[in-house]
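Quick question: who can interpret this fold?

. . .
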Amino acid sequence: MELIPFLGWLVAGLGGGLVWRARRRNAARLEALRGFLRAVADDAPVPQLAEPADGPLGDMQTALVRALAHQGDGLDAARVEQRRLQGVLGGMVEGVLVIDADGTVLLSNRGAEELLALPPGETYAGRPLIELSRHPDLHRLVRWAVSDEGLAHGSTLEVSLGGTGSYVLQVTATPVDAGPDAGRAFILVFHDITQMKRLELVRRDFVANVSHELRTPLAAIAGYTETLLGGALDEPERARRFLGIIERHTDRLGRLVNDLLTLSDLELGRTELRRGPVDAADAVEAAFEVLRVKADQAGVVLDAEVAADTPPLDADRDRVEQTILNLVDNAIKYTPAGGHISVRIRPLPAAEVPEILRRSDAPQYCELVVADTGVGVPPEDLPRLTERFYRVDKARSRELGGTGLGLAIVKHIVQAHGGTLHIDSRLNQGTTVRVVLPARLVRRDEVARSA
């Protein structure tokens, strides 16, 4: 009879031991799960979990691992999408800023940073827009965008940013629907319309200038013709003087029309270049023969220096002569008596060839320099010198018979030959025009035959 109580105690002891061991095992598994979750929360290396056991705890471990794996896949997809978005924003020509309702920058691309003249390599997210740009028009646009009316319609504004590089920007502010739980955000897109504005200005100036250039001689011709028909023909001296004036204005109209046609043909590519070896010294001498009398009358000395090792130019001889003629003629007009104009031509070393012309198979180049000791050009006028009809001193240019197209023609001739044109000038010190043209290595007898 004493065996039965002993067996009861034994069974109870074994049962208690099994329960204790199960509790200890479950506690260890729970601690492993806690460590696993802490590592996930801290973005630390995740420890390896044991195989899930049967029962509710094992089911919970399996569900938790699956949920975290699903979340990890979602985070990986989000990171891929973020990198893709950053790549798209970085490759955009337009500048993009994303701001919140308080004007704090949430996201920016390099295009916006360049337009706002911000240093590269810094992080601007989290900084107020007022720290990045204090332009009043830009902040006026932001205030409009965050208003109820701006939220409903969006807004666009043109902003002119000065500084080292002057930009005209079209800024569009659009509200972003980020959901009911997220704060309001706005996308600012910056379109650089500087070039478009400049072209609009050039077009307006061209229309106004060509109308004025045509109207002036036409009015003179019409006026003096009316005077002659009104009775001046009966006075030989007056009639001869009036006819001389009509002839001068007719010649001016002819030069203007010819220059316009020449420029139009060059711009449209209708002028076929008859390229061949051109002796630079002969081209300079031909231009000097035409202009020497004019230079003597103006009291200006012409001087030429062509380096002995200068190869022939690979160019259209007539166009090269026209280039030198236009440049020297322009220099004569703006060089006071006693001044000096020099034309220098030399082969250009490879290290001095402009970057835009450098190629592995590039030919040799020659540099043509026309320098004068004239009145010079103000710095603000230099970028527009090669525009059609652009004159620094309009009255003086017209008095001297200029059409305002000479430098524009030179620019297009040089571009048609695959060369470059650069102008340096200082007020009351003179102007230097540098033209780079391709050269052609041929025998001198071939040059003589082409001439």
